[in-house]
């Protein structure tokens, strides 16, 4: 039982070959485009690598780059094959090449789809990575004299200004961390001693945020310290004040930014996947139609093309059975050895 | 004696025409580049128009746009002439206007050089414009409730953060104006009353700067208030503190930004002018070589090409004589002298 049979007279075969040639060139460009999208995404992720805990999210751009490069090769061969398809004498030399070609191209086309699914599925992974990275960034904000961490302050400040965000979940994260280095605290003053004593770890905590949390759109000059104290500032109520500092947390801002980027890239890669699949389907029809012509005297006869010679289940069994036999043989061999 | 004579056979003439056709296409693209740079410069000036006083001159970017369009037109025409020069019949149609075309090319090149010069010189009026504009911008920083000025605070804050600068000449400009709106000042407090009483205009002045002056690269959290008071902050000396707030004034920052842009554009326009001179000389060679065939009936004969028919000095005196003749009017005596004028 053949899957999706179609009749191909000579003119239809020629048209199919010409269409496929054009389509394979489009798919080559699409493959190059996918590669550049992967590079772009990787660059954007590397720019903020300091506030990410792990690089697992890099699997998405890496997959895109691999798939882009592979599709260049796949579509190049598809173009060559359909050029030879118009000449019945030259087509049979591709016979031995076809089997591994189908394996490789199906693998990479599925990988393309996997990349799109991954870009949506890895949102949780990205979020947890950012949560830990930002927590560390805020903790090490004050360590501008520690080698290896001395740029955390600058990184976090520039991040907050560029993405218009404050803190990890929100601005209150700054209240729980000592973000002023001990070098700049006068330990002889009463206020500092009180604050340091007021908590178990001996940290200088207060309800203030760094200047990079300030919102330029605020109508009044920025209020950074004593944020929760309404009486410390004239005509100020922190519950209703929205424009003074950025309300949004940096984790949310970064996740939104990257998910927006990956959604756009996912949509583009999905359309590339459709183009690539149509190339492979057309090539399969062309291959089966030309195989029927091989050996015939009149090359202009009508032939049939199909997707699969047997049904889907039978074809899968055909490929899986040798693998099972191989595994069983191993089992039998080991049993014999034991006996 | 002609200037820089070169002998041409048919092959050499054809090669020259083809090469020149290619060069004209490059020149068209160069014209497009000049046009787009003028457009870009105009957009950049408009982006910061709030920082400049209202009569800032857009003359230079407009001139760049016009020159770019003109370059495209002239070079496209030159390319068409070169393309037709390989066919004697088509070329004979162009022959009458070729001399005036070359003269207009000379004038256009002078215009290009002038444009480049203006690009380099525009820095000077820009400095005055920015000084005035920034002074006003700083004054209106607090007026976030006045229609028409309510975005000045945001614009100035974003500009100071983007260009890494503070104030007009330097950060002390903020000490001389009131940048906190009266709406947020508690007039019943002693401190406010003291500060207002301390100056003639009744302005609330303090030695503090807005948050946008803060430098993220500073190792310590930003000190915005009591900037000149060493005792107000632990381990702080405002004379030696470099990294706390931006030291540079915004006028200097904007001048160097626009100055760099204008220098690049001016240099590029000069390069385009050099390219134009080269193609103009090439076209003159094509013109003269095709006009001076040894055997006028045979298009494949040899010919000579030159830049000027006489030496530079003689050509110059000829032009001067012509201009004198035109200014004196066509009298009979001058008519005799005119007969000596060049015919090319």
TrEMBL record, chain A:
Q: Which SUPFAM superfamilies match?
A: Tetraspanin (SSF48652)
**A Gene Ontology cellular-component term:** plasma membrane
Q: What is its main location?
A: membrane
InterPro entries in alphabetical order: Peripherin/rom-1, Peripherin/rom-1_CS, Peripherin_LEL, Tetraspanin/Peripherin, Tetraspanin_EC2_sf
Transmembrane parts of this sequence: 56-79, 100-122, 257-281
Q: Name one GO biological process term.
A: visual perception
- Cell compartment(s), UniProt: Membrane
Keywords attached to this Swiss-Prot or TrEMBL record, sorted alphabetically, are:
Membrane, Transmembrane, Transmembrane helix
Its membrane topology, per UniProt? Multi-pass membrane protein
Task: Describe the family membership recorded for this protein in Swiss-Prot or TrEMBL.
Answer: Belongs to the PRPH2/ROM1 family.
Q: Mind telling me what this protein is named?
A: Retinal outer segment membrane protein 1a
UniProtKB/TrEMBL annotation, chain B:
- Membrane topology recorded in Swiss-Prot or TrEMBL: Multi-pass membrane protein
Q: In terms of domain of life, where is this protein from?
A: Eukaryota
Q: Determine if Transmembrane is one of this entry's keywords.
A: yes
Q: Which GO terms describe its biological process?
A: cell adhesion; visual perception
Q: Which UniProt keywords apply?
A: Cell adhesion, Disulfide bond, Membrane, Transmembrane, Transmembrane helix
Pfam families the UniProt entry points to: Tetraspanin (PF00335)
Question: Can you quote a single GO CC term?
Answer: plasma membrane
The protein's location, in the record's own words, is: Membrane
Residues crossing the lipid bilayer are 20-41, 62-81, 101-121, 265-286
For this protein, the record's PANTHER family field holds: PERIPHERIN-2, TETRASPANIN
Q: Which family does it belong to?
A: Belongs to the PRPH2/ROM1 family.
Under what name is this protein listed? Peripherin-2
* Organism the protein comes from: Coregonus suidteri
